[in-house]
C-alpha cells in the first residue's frame, strides 16, 4: 500500500517553488543558479571557507572579503615572482640585461615562460618592464585566476545568515542546503 502524501502540500508548493523558497531572497540570481546546479560543490566551498577563515564555526561578511583579498594577493604575488627574481638591482624596473641574466639561469621551459610573461607585460614594447606595467600585468593575472563567479559564490555565503546576526554558521548553511542535497 502506498504511503499517504498530503495533497495540500503539493497544491500549496509545486517542486520548483519549494526549491526557490529554500535559498535566501538576498542571493543574486547568478549565484542562486550556480548553487542550485551544484549544491554539493557549494556546501564544500562554504564549509572550507568557514573552517579555514571563520571563527567558532561561523564567518562574517568582513572575513569573507578578507579571504577574497588574500586570494588576490596570492595570485598577484605568484604572477610577479619571476619578475622580482629578475630585478637584480632591486629598483622595481626590469631592464633587458636583468631579464637576460635571469633567463640564462633557467631551464628552456622556464625561460620560455619568462619571455612570454615579459612580452605580455611590456605594454609599450620597449623591452623594459616599468612598475606600472608590472602592476597592470599582476592585476590582469588576478582577474584571470580569481574568477568573478567563484568570488560571487564566496560572497553568497553571507546571504545564508538566516538569523541576521552578521555571522553565517555551518548550521544555517546545512539547514538551507540539506534539502537541496537530498534532491540531488
Ligand atoms: Ca631593476
Ligand atoms: Ca615597457
Which descriptor suits the 3D outline?
Answer: elongated
Reading the helices and strands in chain order gives: HHHHEHHHHHEH
| Fraction of helical residues | 55-70%
- What hetero molecules are bound to the protein chains? calcium ion
Low-confidence stretches: 5-20
Number of helices: 10
Give the count of structural domains. 1
Q: Please, could you describe this protein's structure?
A:
- The protein is mostly helical.
- The protein has one domain (about 30-184).
- About 65% of the residues lie in helices and about 5% in strands.
- The protein contains ten helices and two strands, in the order ααααβαααααβα.
- The chain has a two-stranded antiparallel ribbon.
- The radius of gyration is 24 Å and the shape is elongated.
- The relative contact order is 0.17.
- Bound molecules: calcium ion (2 copies).
Helix and strand layout, with pairings?
Elements: H1 7-12, H2 15-22, H3 29-37, H4 39-53, E1 58-60, H5 61-84, H6 96-104, H7 108-121, H8 131-146, H9 148-156, E2 167-169, H10 170-183
Antiparallel strand pairs: 1-2
Helix pairs in contact: 3-4, 3-9, 4-10, 5-8
Bound molecules: calcium ion (2 copies).
Residues 87, 89, 91, 93-95, 98 line the site of one calcium ion.
